[in-house]
Design goal:
The protein has 250 residues and is an alpha/beta fold. Helices cover 55% and strands 11% of the residues. The protein has a six-stranded parallel β-sheet, sandwiched between helices. Strands 4-5 form a two-stranded antiparallel ribbon. It binds ligand PTJ. Ligand PTJ binds next to α2 and α4.
């Protein structure tokens, strides 16, 4: 039991969810390692949603609302960290969830699907098509989902697939706390924020924007520069580290 007054309560609860997810066969051990890398970046970013992240979250929602066939890709970490929130986002954006994992087994995919369905989500997991040009398991997709989607939201992605999705002509929105990752660099919109804050923020933006006209949505998306987002994220890390050094001498 983690006491609620523990100064790192939120962070420790995230770990508990991932460990529980591992016991259920949803999260993989490698996912726990990946989370550790994310925690480190979140720490040096100050564990908050910066303005550049909020901007990217808003642009991402507008882009998905403008898309003909948006899909939200879900892996093991995402499924246990934000099942309710991502199901709500999927409903608001009319974008199905699709289980797409790096560490593939049909049994695992089905477990993630049934877990998410408990939260009322529409979940694609047919594994009946392949993205050409990718040798690892993330090539295995659903013919009705990522395969034909024009925009894909990919939380906690590995760099290869982001590149392939782009090569297949899709717009890619990434959620990745590491602004230096290949995914972060290659995506059209990179949300440098913890998924546990990013998805609830996106739910709020979806509620706000879903009745906007196409012109209004296009206005939000226009002039967005992803390189600027990455630069601001790196600046934020630099400023935080500088503050931390100054605090050492106070
Ligand atoms: O469920 P599977 O089989 O698809 O496996 C999932 C993992 C996460 C193991 C797989 O996708 C993987 O290996 O990912 P990477 O290449 O380690 O990339 C994960 C990225 O997500 C890293 O850059 C982390 O910094 C980032 N990250 C980790 N936790 C979070 C995060 N970003 C946002 N929010 C987090 N909570």
């Amino acid at each position: 039991m983690i006491p609620k007054d523990h100064p790192r309560y939120e962070s420790l609860m995230m770990r508990e969810k991932l460990v529980e997810g591992y016991k259920r066969g949803i999260t993989v051990l490698q996912g726990l390692i990946a989370h550790g890398r994310g925690e480190m970046f979140d720490y040096v970013l100050g564990e908050k949603s910066h303005d550049f992240a909020l901007r990217a979250e808003k642009v991402a929602v507008a882009l998905m609302l403008l898309s003909k066939g948006p899909v939200i890709s879900v892996n093991g970490n995402t499924a246990v960290l934000v099942p309710k929130e991502i199901s709500e986002l999927s409903r608001l954006l009319n974008a199905p969830l699709e289980v797409n994992v790096f560490h593939f087994s049909k049994e695992r995919v089905d477990k993630i699907k049934s877990y998410l369905e408990k939260f009322g989500a529409t979940v694609l997991a047919n594994c009946d098509a392949e993205l050409k040009g990718l040798s690892h398991a993330r090539r295995i997709v659903d013919r009705r989902g990522i395969y034909v989607a024009d925009t894909v939201l990919v939380p906690l992605e590995d760099g290869d697939r982001c590149e392939i999705l782009k090569r297949h002509g899709k717009k890619v929105i990434a959620i990745d706390l590491n602004p230096l990752s290949r995914t972060a660099m290659k995506a059209d919109v990179t949300i440098v924020d913890n998924i546990v804050r990013a998805i609830p923020n996106m739910v709020k933006f979806a509620e706000e924007l879903r009745n906007c006209s196409r012109d209004e949505l296009e206005e939000i998306v226009s002039n967005y520069d992803n390189r600027e987002t990455l630069r601001l994220a790196l600046d934020a890390i630099k400023e935080n580290l500088t503050k931390m050094i100054e605090n050492l001498y106070k």
